[in-house]
Amino acid sequence: QVQLVESGGGVVQAGGSLRLSCAVSGRTFINAAMAWFRQAPGKGREFVAGLPWSGGRTYYSDSVKGRFTISRDNAKITVYLQMNSLKPEDTAVYYCAARSVAVGTLPHDYPYWGQGTQVTVSS
What we know:
mainly beta, 7-stranded mixed sheet, 4-stranded antiparallel sheet, 11 strands, 0% helix, 51% strand
């Protein structure tokens, strides 16, 4: 009932910025919790940032605090991840996810996922 489509990935130099977008459609979970995860080669899927669709407190992994910002546009029904001061270790496929209750940090918490968008940070 919920469809998520990520965009905005690409290749940037270390220290650069990217903004990822996640377009949300469907009705079931659009006013619940949204999150970004990432998966680097050889690693598991890692929580990056999350927020309630209604707004309020945002959540970030320690590795991205102070550099990444999650936000949403209610009119466009889109979630964003502004990534600044990118580091090579940020290289990963970034996924948008949604669930019906409070923000969680485990992939298992989220039943709805986008297909991912590749972010590559060159040194």
